[in-house]
Specification:
Elements (H helix, E strand, L loop, with lengths): L1 H31 L1 H4 L5 H14 L3 E8 L6 E8 L13 H4 L4 E6 L5 H25 L10 E6 L4 H6 L3 E2 L8 E3 L6 E5 L10 H4 L5 H12 L7 H16 L6 H9 L1 H22 L2 H24 L4 H8 L3 H10 L6 H9 L7
Parallel strand pairs: 3-4, 4-7
Antiparallel strand pairs: 1-2, 2-3, 5-6, 6-7
Length: 356
């Protein structure tokens, strides 16, 4: 009996170690790519682009930051549907309306200014200009259905903006919060905060903020685990929370976002734990998996160190490689404040275990 208890305890410890490494590896991977993430307008902008790429890729070709030929600017999300049209694996509700034709999608965390509205429209017209030049070169005519449509998605939209641009409720979509501009504009604007709370609007409300986003996250969590988009959306929301937490000088909006995304993060974390347990049981080689995870984590830490402080001498690398999981995890957090190799040396000296 004692032997069986020891085996059970060992298995639990290994499963816990696998889970810890899964979490640690993801955090390190996000931090390693953080410079790329932060080159976008903000973390929410990056999330929106990843979100559309995830949901629309099965339906056609998605291009994030599509360059425009006339000048150095880009479309947030450019979508070209497959033909014949492909039905999504699970319902994405109102979002599917955007995927029935070529779409220029611009996402705003706050209501766009008048200049941003006009610039967004200009991106669609620049794309149409590309098509027109290509048609002239090939001596063909442009089809009206190929010209595309502009979709502006904003967390909030004021009555003034709706009036100024002559927008009216979109009769084709027939949903509160979705407005069309005059026909010649070839565009619509979606006010996420005005959308009704229904299954049809869930995937758009995830792009909202405040209570709108919090309720949408709760609805996402309530979806069955078999939903084709649930787990990857949870992962992206968890990533968004991690990136926001790493930003200096958090605003009140940032702190609210962190709270709103906490349930998604906890759910993702628990799924990662369960996945680690399943993998450990299926493989039956927990110790080998743990060692592989440790090696990968140490590689990521060394890459982060190199990015922070530059080249590191071999004797320091050996000390880092010898660190146990708990100390390595501490180093992964501490190195974000390092600026020189001396910082690493001081940190290691303060921990006798690193000197062994």
């Amino acid at each position: 009996m004692a032997h069986l208890k020891t085996l059970a305890t060992t298995r639990n410890l290994v499963e816990l170690a696998i889970w810890k490494w899964n979490i640690l590896l993801l955090h390190f991977s996000i931090l390693l790519n953080q410079s790329t993430i932060m080159t976008t307008k903000n973390p929410h902008d990056s999330f929106a682009k990843s979100f559309f790429e995830e949901l629309f890729s099965p339906l056609g070709e998605v291009t994030v930051e599509r360059r425009i030929a006339d000048e150095p600017r880009s479309i947030d999300i450019f979508f070209l549907p497959s033909f014949p049209l492909v039905d999504p694996a699970d319902s994405i509700g109102l979002l599917a309306k955007l995927a029935t034709q070529t779409a220029v999608i611009e996402v705003f965390r706050n209501q766009p200014t008048d200049v941003e509205m006009l610039v967004s429209a200009g991106k669609l017209y620049a794309y149409i200009g590309e098509l027109n030049r290509e048609a002239k070169r090939e001596k063909t005519s442009l089809k009206h259905k190929d010209l595309g449509r502009l979709w502006i998605i904003s967390t909030t939209v004021s009555e003034r903006l709706i009036d100024d641009y002559g927008a009216t409720l979109d009769s084709d979509v027939n949903c509160q919060g979705v407005y069309s501009f005059h026909k010649g504009w070839r565009g619509s604007i979606i006010a996420v905060n005005q959308l009704p709370v229904t299954d049809e609007t869930l995937w758009l409300r995830i792009l909202g903020k405040g209570t709108v986003q919090r309720h949408a996250v709760d609805e996402l969590l309530a979806l069955p685990d078999t939903n084709a988009y649930k787990q990857n959306t949870l992962r992206m929301l968890a990533n968004l929370r991690i990136v926001i937490l790493e930003q200096p000088n958090l605003t009140e909006d940032d702190q609210e976002d962190i709270m709103n995304l906490s349930t998604a993060y906890v759910e993702w974390e628990q799924k990662t734990l369960n996945q680690g347990r399943e993998e450990g049981r299926e493989e039956g080689r927990e110790e080998g998996r743990e060692e592989g995870g440790q090696l990968e984590a140490k590689k990521l830490v060394k890459r982060l160190l190199k990015r922070q402080v530059g080249e590191i001498e071999n004797y320091l690398i050996k000390q880092v490689e010898a660190l146990p999981i708990e100390v390595l995890e501490e180093l992964g957090e501490a190195l974000l404040d390092f600026s020189t190799v001396a910082n690493l040396e001081e940190w290691l000296k303060a921990r006798p275990i690193a000197q062994r």
